[in-house]
Design a protein that fits this description.
Blueprint: H1 8-26, H2 32-50, H3 55-62, H4 70-77, E1 80-83, E2 96-103, E3 106-113, H5 119-124, H6 132-148, E4 152-158, H7 165-169, H8 172-184, E5 190-199, H9 200-204, E6 211-215, E7 219-221, H10 225-232, H11 239-246, H12 250-256, E8 261-263, H13 274-293, H14 297-310
Parallel strand pairs: 3-4, 4-5, 5-6, 5-7, 6-8
Antiparallel strand pairs: 1-2, 2-3
Helix pairs in contact: 1-2, 3-11, 4-13, 6-8, 10-11
């Protein structure tokens, strides 16, 4: 098990429990009561820790190395999935995966960021930071969905679009802007879910949807807490304060009207109950798709545009 900084009390209890179980395996001393006591303490400590998480702690959970990524959710949610590759302009971006899937009889086009499950795969996936060809691939798949009247599901989990010079040379900003323009008027339902990190244009490039949900321990913001801290304080040491100031949690986003729903995670984070989390996410995605399909598509598009037009409005002082 991988423990985060704020989970140290749990790590200590798990270490004690492991040692007690080793003694119990010898059969010389009855340790059953001690084991039960430690398990009870672990349960209570877990409840105390996860019952009052700060913004920065949720950011840490969203980056947990054992957290499930897009391909895991796709595998769990779809009976069959055919991945499609390439943008037909430059190449195939491994940081964004997508294709056609069967979700309990409902054909959908699924697009998502993919970070990679180990060091080698993270490098292969560019740590989930997409290049322009990734966003153009995503748009190509959305156009396929529109042609065949398939709803679109987008799974968001990225620290941001790739900031390298080669990405800028190939039109990073234009690719993201084009996606926003096309998604605003796409004639099929779009359901988006933030499953991990939702940073800046890298997230919004596939994040404009009719129904947007966030998993409980995820974040959505124009900038990461570390980058915000380095700009304001010229140091990463104030990342916790930055996380609070940015108001980037799912609860904050729901309050601002930027998202429509929060999907509860298992206690301890999505990684502590991966199959349970996938089942819960699938249920909410299907529910959202069904509600949108019950409406006329012109009404869906009108509501989509109205929704994003309302975001950011403020009242002027009289």
């Amino acid at each position: 098990m991988v423990f985060l900084e704020f989970e140290r009390p749990l790590e200590e209890l798990y270490d004690k429990l492991e040692k007690v179980r080793e003694v119990a395996e010898d059969g010389v001393v009855d340790m059953s009561e001690t084991i039960l006591d430690l398990e009870s303490r672990i349960k209570q400590t877990r409840k105390d820790i996860y019952g009052n998480l700060t913004g920065w702690q949720r950011v840490q959970l969203s980056r947990h190395p054992e957290r499930p990524y897009s391909l895991y959710y796709i595998e769990q949610m779809c009976r069959k999935f055919v991945e499609l590759h390439g943008d037909r302009y430059y190449g195939d971006d491994k940081a964004i995966v997508g294709g056609i899937g069967n979700m309990d009889g409902q054909t959908v086009v699924i697009i998502g960021h993919q970070k990679g499950v180990n060091t080698k795969m993270r490098q292969y996936r560019n740590f989930g930071m997409a290049n322009p060809e990734g966003y153009r691939k995503a748009l190509r798949l959305m156009k396929i969905a529109e042609r065949f009247n398939f709803p679109v599901v987008c799974l968001i989990d990225t620290p941001g679009a790739y900031p390298g010079i080669e990405a800028e040379e190939r039109g990073q900003a234009e690719a993201i802007a084009r996606n926003l323009f096309e998604m605003a008027q796409l004639r099929v339902p779009i359901v988006c879910a933030v499953i991990g990190e939702g940073a800046s244009g890298g997230a919004i490039g596939i994040g404009l949807g009719d129904h947007v949900m966030m998993l409980e321990n995820t974040w959505y913001s124009v900038i990461s807490p570390e980058s915000c801290s380095s700009i304001l304080w010229r140091s990463w040491d104030y990342k916790e304060q930055a996380a609070d100031a940015l108001k980037l949690t799912a609860e904050d986003m729901l309050g601002f009207g930027i998202i429509d729903e929060i999907v509860k995670e298992p206690q301890g984070g999505a990684h502590s109950g991966r199959k349970e989390m996938a089942k819960s996410l699938k249920k909410q995605l299907k529910k959202a798709i069904a509600a949108l399909q019950a409406k006329d598509i012109d009404q869906v598009i009108e509501e989509r545009i109205d929704k994003y037009s309302r975001i950011g409005q403020v009242e002027r002082a009289k």
